[in-house]
Design goal:
29% of the residues lie in helices and 29% in strands. By secondary structure, it is of the alpha+beta class. Strands 1-2-3-4 form a four-stranded antiparallel β-sheet, sandwiched between helices. The chain has a three-stranded antiparallel β-sheet with strand order 5-7-6. A hairpin with a 5-residue loop joins strand 2 and strand 3.
Length: 173
């Protein structure tokens, strides 16, 4: 899939190194429990590719059209952990720091929303993040998503500052 400035595509072997560097960046991973090791990052790519095999879509690698640079991912992932609003398809994104502030997350997420309600035939998508992640919440709002719930993420320790989470949703137009 292609947006004006970005290409959303399947993962390539050469994406693994910059993806691992991004996942090891403390600032990029500020709203996650911990940065990922190279092995954890590679395992994540393997899981993403497995999901493409199961569903035909997933978290696409993002490439800047003009430069060919890998900058992160945007796409859809099935969430099934124990929460009142799940199971559901979540739209998510993660970008390398040099790609921040350029509108790439919103641009690619809009394309993923179109895919979700078009080719994938979904009726609703959600997005969730730590309550303090205001940048991601701003993207959710730009997508037209509305606040659905506040919750404590069950995978996080009770003393984690990331425990309070918000979930937004968007229904098929």
């Amino acid at each position: 899939m292609e947006t004006q400035r970005l290409i959303m595509r399947r993962w390539r072997e050469e994406d693994r190194e910059p993806f691992a560097a991004m996942n090891a960046d403390l600032e990029v991973m500020e709203h996650f429990p911990a940065p990922l090791t190279r092995a954890e990052s590679d395992h994540f790519v393997d899981r993403i590719e497995e999901e493409f095999g199961k569903h035909g879509f997933g978290l696409w690698a993002l490439e800047v059209r003009e430069s060919g640079e890998f900058i992160g991912f945007t796409g859809l992932i099935r969430q099934t952990f124990d929460a009142p609003f799940l199971p559901a398809w979540e739209i998510g994104w993660r970008l390398a720091r040099p790609a921040w502030g350029q509108g790439y997350a919103t641009e690619a997420a809009r394309q993923a929303v179109g895919y979700a309600f078009g080719e994938a035939g979904l009726d609703e998508i959600i997005s969730m993040t730590a309550e303090r992640n205001t940048r991601s919440q701003a993207v959710m709002k730009r997508l037209g998503m509305t606040h659905l719930a506040d919750f404590e993420h069950p995978w996080l320790p009770k003393d984690s500052p990331l425990l309070p989470h918000v979930v937004y949703h968007l229904e098929r137009p």
